[in-house]
Amino acid sequence: xxxxxxxIDTDPGQDDAVAIxxxxxxxxxxxxxxxxxxxxxxxxPLTAKNARIVCELAGKPDTKVFAGCDAPLSRKLVTxxxxxxxxxxxxxxxxxxxxxxxxxxAVDFIIDTLRSEAPGTVTLCPLGxxxxxxxxxxxxxxxxxxxxxxVLMGGAYFEVGNITPAAEFNIYVDPEAADIVFKSGxxxxxxxxxxxxxxxxxxxxxxxxxxxxxxxxxxxxxWTDFFExxxxxxxxxxxxxxxxxxxxxxxxxxDLFSGRHINVMIETAGDFTLGMTVAxxxxxxxxxxxxxxxxDVDADGFFALLTDRIGRL
Length: 313
Ligand code: RIB
Ligand code: CA
Fold this sequence. Notes:
alpha/beta, 17% strand, globular, binds alpha-D-ribofuranose
């Protein structure tokens, strides 16, 4: 099996960091063409710095990292330091990166890569607000037909919102960008909170990372130790949902996930429902399906894969 060519668009964030480690630890299945940072969990300078910290932790300092959009298309940036801490990677203390940021803007890298690689051979993996992806589509509509698939973490249906009662964070931060992506016509696979809230970092799962006895394993354990307090206080859950690694795990083991091909629209005007993913799970609207909306995951299989791959770094 040839490795899938991917671009990871990300706002690290501890869970983004674990997703990046999983991708960099799985060269047989995914070839990371580049990592594009976007403003989200924390402002852009920090997400661009954190992406490089993670690449160096993975022992891959040659990975190309690009800075992208520093604010949503038409709204003020909303960040999530209350979840991820001031640095976005709170938990362990990590050295500043020494690898450089690429000169090109992330949006231009996305466009140029899709135009230069063979059509249908590049998968976009957004793990944060969809600002970079939507900006690339607006700037170069021709790239949509060249995208193999967009596999993103975002949205919610049965789990409702985590930043408002109705909306999940990545979609809420830039609903106009999400609207562009969900209406683009590109093949879309969505990992909503309905799935990620079933991928919880229970204590034994965190200890399995620590037991790897490696620096990456220790980092993942300490990030999830920090990251889980928000969800445990809010939901009373046993552990934190590892949202973003679900995207990469899907590329490696799609059989771990199940869902439905349905219509999903983005609320961009609601006073109380702004950023809601209006998922037609019961197919009552007659609107054409535009997304594979995941609903379930084999959590034990997911963590077994994650622990095995992190252990390879
Ligand atoms: O709602 C969870 C999502 O928002 C995750 O991608 C997390 O990293 C934040 O970006
Ligand atoms: Ca993220």
